[in-house]
Amino acid sequence: MKFTAAISTLLLASASAFAPASTVGSSTAIYSANPFAGPSLEYTGGSDPNNANYVKLSDALQEADTERRKAREEADQRERAHEIRREERQKKIDYMNDMPDSQPAGTVDEFMFKEGVQDQLDKLDNDLVGLVPVKSRVKEIAALLVLDKMRRKLGFETSVPSLHMSFTGAPGTGKTTVAVRMGQILAKMGYSRRGHVVLATRDDLVGQYVGHTAPKTKEMIKKSMGGVLLVDEAYYLYNAGNDRDYGQESIEILLNVMENNTDDLVVAVAGYKDLMDKFFSYIPGMMSRIGNHIDFPNYSADELVEISNVMARDLEYDIDADAYPVFYDYISRRMELPFFSNARTVRNAMDRARMNAAIRTFERFAIQGE
């Protein structure tokens, strides 16, 4: 019994030796401190220069969620836009199917005469002798515009056709006259606001020093807005042998306007066919933006004599019947000489004939007193 009590006393003493302090303050101080939360273990960014490239996982997840939400919203918007277009198309199909055959759309004659298109075509026939392919092409363009307006009146989807033009041919074949008539036809049909024609050459578009070309080209474009800009001898705008030529800047401005202002400006380029083909090979963007290529053939001797008769009629002159064979022989010989200019040569000859007639009349009645 005494031995058992002694062992119990010894065990109690040993447990007391290894037990923690019994004071409340000491216990709180020991167990409240976090050995892993010291200032030295907290992330403060450090001095690594690449720290700006690191993000927290929570920030990365939030950013990924935002991107997914945006992508989902954009997909929903595209789907909604597609659905709207599909509904509009179905409405138009239903409208066309329900449209009675008696629905008035106007007649070709109504548009041709009421809008004044036929009047411009008649003037083209009266002003220009021959040029049957040119007149046919102009009438084809006019037919396209008339049918386009009739489709629009019925509610069909329409778009402004490419009206930019290329006129190729020798001087004096009527390129400027056709451009003026086309401008008036476009104005009558409502495809241009004014229908005027502005004639420009390289000197009007290209500057002489850096920073001078853009203002000159934009000024000519501004004058032409609502009508037709006719660039005569357009191949002189580009000089393949000079990389520092300023004409390239003018061409780039014209290409931009031709692409973005099709509803308010028609650009027509003109010149010799071989040189224009070479020009288009250098500037393929110009070729692709022009939808109407019209070639003007040279006049025959008979057509040039008829042109002289038209000029005399417009100036209220009478040509004697005996003068026609003489004029025909003169034109036939003149056509074989260099620098022949078709109708311009005829006009110069008519001016000389008028001058000779004035001199004879003056000498006869003013000097000789008849």
Summarize the helices and strands and which ones pair or pack:
Layout: H1 2-18, H2 24-32, H3 57-98, H4 108-114, H5 117-127, H6 132-154, E1 165-169, H7 175-189, E2 197-200, H8 202-205, H9 213-224, E3 228-232, H10 247-260, E4 266-271, H11 273-282, H12 284-289, E5 292-296, H13 301-314, H14 323-334, H15 343-367
Parallel strand pairs: 1-4, 1-5, 2-3, 3-4
Helix pairs in contact: 5-6, 5-7, 6-7, 9-10, 13-14, 13-15
Note down, in words, how this protein is organized:
- With about 375 residues, this protein is of the alpha/beta class.
- It has 15 helices and five strands.
- The protein has helices spanning about 1-20, 25-30, 55-100, 110-115, 115-125, 130-155, 175-190, 200-205, 215-225, 245-260, 275-280, 285-290, 300-315, 325-335, 345-365; strands spanning about 165-170, 195-200, 230, 265-270, 290-295.
- The protein has a five-stranded parallel β-sheet with strand order 2-3-4-1-5.
- Helix 10 links the parallel strand 3 and strand 4 (about 265-270).
- Helix 5 runs antiparallel to helix 6 (about 130-155) and helix 13 (about 300-315) packs across helix 14 (about 325-335).
- The longest helix is centred in the N-terminal third of the chain and has 42 residues, at about 55-100.
- Mean pLDDT is about 80; it is low at about 20-30.
